[in-house]
Amino acid sequence: MRTGINHLYIPGPTNVPEVVRQAMNVPMQDMRAHDFGALHIALFSDLKKVLRTAMGQVFLFPGSGTGAWEAAITNTLNPGDRVLMAQAGQFSLLWAEMARRLGLDVDLIEVEWGAGCPVDQFAERLKADKAGQIKAVFVTHNETATGVTSDIGAVRAALEAAGHGALLFVDGVSSVGCLDFRMDDWGVDLAVTGSQKGLMLPAGLGILAASTKALEASKTATMRRAYFEFNDQIKMNATGYFPYTPPTQLLHGLRKALDRMLEEGLDAVIARHHRLASGVRAAVKAWGLEVCAMDPAQYSDTVTAIRVPAGVDARDVIRIGYDRYNCSFGSGLGPLAGKVFRIGHLGDLNEGMCLTALSLAELSLNAAGAKVQFGSGVAAAQAVYAADAASVAMAAE
User: Fold this and answer.
1) What angle do CA 192, 195, 199 make, to 5 degrees?
2) What's the pLDDT at 211?
3) Cβ atoms 205, 71 nearer than 8 A
4) Is 119 domain-assigned?
5) Which residues constitute the domain of residue 292?
């Protein structure tokens, strides 16, 4: 029999704040009523603030980030178009597979899982593409499987240096609302995310922002689409309505989640994620273990993938955490199965929650055969959090 709460430390879906959950507890509404649109019209402008775009057009599709991927592709590209991608983890792999299924010619650069976007190789291929055959570049901003954050600004710089006109697609599913994301500054043409991570909602909303250039491409794109048609959404969204039945409860939850984020301040949200992640990484070091991410400059502030010692199966760590301690850690995906477990530290999270995750990870690691010193990781994280709190207090004086 399980008692207490389930400690959820997977990198998505994330914990839903109680006030957001309560905001979704509303009766069904008439989605065509004359006052329905007024309730939701500001969602689009406030999402633009989170994405840091002034000109981007925001779309909300019932679905997931994967649905938003498909919407981005089908509205702006043509069958047979060549696209440049890198496979550096499970989610970049899935995006490449979708592109192939939709009839695109995928130029795929494979890199070791734990590495970031191969910007130098992208730059070489873009410079060599004198005929402009590459129509789009796809980049996973934060690879959830490996805990790696790539430099989107560097990819845009590579495009500019090559004088290349390809569209820049960015998967921000596990970064938007948590990490610094600058759609306009980075020249992102299609930014994709979902409701169930940084936005602190249940899964069910695919969120997409399109640049002016992407919207122009959508006017001539010939890939087949129906439900995900941009124009259908644009016609209705301007007044807060939707062409198809919207998930009304999720929209109410999104309103409350955005209110919380904007009240905290986007820069403060980003700083909080960095602080919490730094504590988790300090704990991993204190355990004598390594993270999957190879370059410290690319460590993710939303998820840490932790390599277990030789002779220990990460699946045992996860199973023990769940069965004994009512705690959910993220599993290793693809070739990392059994080799890593993941601690998600994104969304509605604080120091106490991270310290709980680390203490339960220590118990689970030891039970699985990894001899880490009890309290070592917790103490290391506490030192990070205490130092940060002291510096904040001094700055306020």
Assistant:
1) 100
2) 98
3) no
4) yes
5) 7-13+265-396
Query: CB burial class (10 A; 0-12, 13-18, 19+) of residue 46?
Result: middle
How is residue 186 annotated by DSSP? T
Per-10-residue mean pLDDT, the chain, length 397: 89 96 94 90 96 97 95 98 95 94 97 96 98 98 97 98 98 97 98 98 97 98 96 94 94 98 97 98 98 98 98 98 97 96 98 98 98 97 88 59
Cis before 246? omega within 30 = no
Q: Please, what sign has the CA dihedral across residues 76, 235, 257, 55?
A: positive
- 129 and 249 co-located in one domain: yes
CA–CA gap between residue 253 and residue 269 (Å, rounded) = 18
DSSP 372: P
Give the number of C-alpha atoms closer than 13 A to the C-alpha of residue 260, restricted to the C-beta side. Answer: 22
Token pair for residue 11?
């990198």
Q: Among 243, 263, 283, give the residue marking a domain's end.
A: 263
